[in-house]
Amino acid sequence: MVECTMYVVSLGPVSEVDMVSATIVEYRVRVLMWNIKTFKLGIYFRQYWRDPRLQFNSSMEQIVLSQDLLEQLWLPDSFFQTETESYIHEVTKPNVFFRLYQNGTILMSIRVTVTSRC
Question: I want to staple 37 with a disulfide (CB 3.0 to 4.6 A). Which of 15, 84, 95, 112 is the partner?
């Protein structure tokens, strides 16, 4: 099981949604049609999961993992369902970090900007 949390850094601009109504006479059904707009969301997207194979005994309660180890770890294939565009922030270096806890729990945090449909 993968748990997720989000810390919202920025939101906007949110475009107004234009609603148009139409009537289909032969079925006497009123249909609402939406002109889909988008918004941008800047977030820290955090995911937690436990991999018992990574448990360790140490005086340290947690270890910060280097980006070089990422290719050797299982990572969840998470996505934003209504996303049309997204990117991970990479100013000076990628804004991604991993922590490994003694019980094998991994925390992955990514700073990402998502453009999504309303």
Answer: 15
pLDDT of residue 16: 53
Alpha carbon distance, N-terminus to C-terminus of the chain: 28
How far is 47 from 32, CA to CA, in rounded Å? 37
Dihedral angle over CA of 50, 62, 67, 84, nearest 10: 50
pLDDT digits (tens, 9 = 90+) for 24-75: 444 444 444 445 577 888 888 899 999 999 999 999 999 998 877 877 888 8
Pairing of strands 96-101, 62-65: antiparallel
* Strand partners for 46: 5, 109
On whether the CB atoms of residues 37 and 104 are closer than 8 A, the answer is: no
Three-state DSSP at 56 gives coil
